[in-house]
């Protein structure tokens, strides 16, 4: 079945139910057996892609072509809406591919943990266009990083989990900056104001840092949140309205009952204005990709 046919089926379902298209969120997470598409208004799972045994997904996105991109620890792949693999980029047994994120030009940045770590850019067909090798000084690949993004200046922003710091690395493989964060950094985000937002995992907080000086602008914990609480603070996304969408992973609960939302949208005052709490249908969430209504409609959905 083609993506066009799938779009038509979804559009028909919406029409029958008398509903208009709403914002969607792709969600995934380590320990989650599937990638899901969640309708933000209803909280319902509208589509699910089952992962294969051993796949650990810590990054997910929707490509400009309308395919689903995700990392799965031993590689990264894109699939279409009927679960056909478009391309698959595999790594060696000694490496972990934990990060697959979009680039402004339509390409994709793959972050490969290893000795050395590799930062590989590929085109929309999965063909390699650029490669940088860098020794992060962390022997165990699984302790290196989870999500890597490219900054607006073209450099790579690399959050180092076990080292509790962040590095800015140029596309020629040189270290530009290195800052201590004071938390086990899972991901990174370059905010529209130029500051860096660094989610700190099991430290139950995120830190905002001046990317030019390394000065900490603020540290946000559950004490600063109204209507919710942090657990493992994984990926954080800045929405068009400047609210923050926080992935609240509970994979390190170790038998504890963790009664927190898997996703929370926070306004500028730290108030929870929307949340998702559905562990039965959605599962653990450490990564997400926000699809606003306009982008959804451009794909051909109604």
Your description of this structure?
This protein has helices at 3-17, 293-298; strands at 24-28, 34-39, 45-50, 60-62, 68-71, 75-79, 85-90, 96-102, 108-113, 117-122, 128-134, 149-150, 156-160, 165-169, 175-180, 189-190, 196-199, 205-209, 216-221, 232-238, 244-249, 263-266, 272-276, 287-291. The protein is mainly beta and 302 residues long. The longest helix has 15 residues, at 3-17.
Order of helices and strands: HEEEEEEEEEEEEEEEEEEEEEEEEH
> Which residues form runs of ≥5 with pLDDT under 50?
11-19
Number of helices: 2
Main pleated sheet: 4 strands, antiparallel
Q: Any idea what the shape is? A: globular
Major sheet: arrangement of strands: 3-2-1-24
Structural class: mainly beta
Beta-strand content bin: 35-45%
Question: In a nutshell, what does this entry contain?
Answer:
The chain is mainly beta. It has 2 helices and 24 strands.
Which key phrases capture this entry?
single chain, 302 residues, mainly beta, four-stranded antiparallel beta sheet, 2 helices, 7% helix, 41% strand, globular
Q: In terms of topology, how is this protein built?
A:
Layout: H1 3-17, E1 24-28, E2 34-39, E3 45-50, E4 60-62, E5 68-71, E6 75-79, E7 85-90, E8 96-102, E9 108-113, E10 117-122, E11 128-134, E12 149-150, E13 156-160, E14 165-169, E15 175-180, E16 189-190, E17 196-199, E18 205-209, E19 216-221, E20 232-238, E21 244-249, E22 263-266, E23 272-276, E24 287-291, H2 293-298
Antiparallel strand pairs: 1-2, 1-24, 2-3, 4-5, 5-6, 6-7, 8-9, 9-10, 10-11, 12-13, 13-14, 14-15, 16-17, 17-18, 18-19, 20-21, 21-22, 22-23
């Amino acid at each position: 079945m083609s993506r066009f046919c799938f779009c038509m089926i979804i559009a028909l379902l919406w029409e029958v139910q008398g509903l208009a298209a709403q914002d969607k969120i792709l969600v995934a997470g380590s320990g989650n057996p599937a990638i899901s598409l969640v309708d933000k208004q209803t909280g319902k799972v509208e589509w699910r892609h089952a992962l294969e045994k051993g796949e650990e997904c810590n990054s997910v996105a929707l490509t400009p072509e309308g395919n689903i991109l995700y990392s799965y620890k031993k590689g990264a792949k894109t699939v279409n809406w009927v679960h056909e693999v478009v391309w698959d980029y595999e790594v060696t047994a000694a490496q972990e591919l934990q990060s697959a994120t979009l680039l402004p030009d339509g390409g994709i940045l793959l972050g490969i943990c290893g000795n050395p770590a590799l930062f590989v850019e590929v085109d929309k067909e999965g063909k390699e266009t650029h490669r940088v090798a860098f020794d992060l000084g962390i022997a165990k690949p699984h302790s290196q990083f989870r999500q890597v993004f490219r900054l607006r200046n073209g450099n790579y922003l690399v959050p180092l989990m076990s080292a509790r710091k962040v590095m800015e690395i140029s596309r020629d493989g040189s270290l530009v900056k290195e800052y201590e964060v004071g938390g086990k950094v899972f991901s990174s985000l370059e905010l529209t104001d130029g500051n860096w937002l660094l989610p700190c995992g099991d430290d139950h907080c995120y830190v905002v840092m001046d990317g030019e000086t390394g000065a900490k602008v603020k540290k946000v914990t559950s004490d600063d949140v109204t209507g919710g609480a942090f657990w493992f603070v994984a990926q954080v996304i800045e929405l068009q309205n400047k609210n923050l969408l926080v992935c609240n992973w509970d994979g390190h609960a170790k038998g504890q009952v963790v009664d927190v939302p898997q996703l929370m949208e926070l306004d500028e005052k730290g108030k929870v204005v929307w949340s998702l709490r559905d562990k039965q249908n959605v599962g653990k969430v450490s990564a997400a990709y926000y699809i606003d209504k306009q982008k959804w409609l451009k794909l051909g959905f109604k």
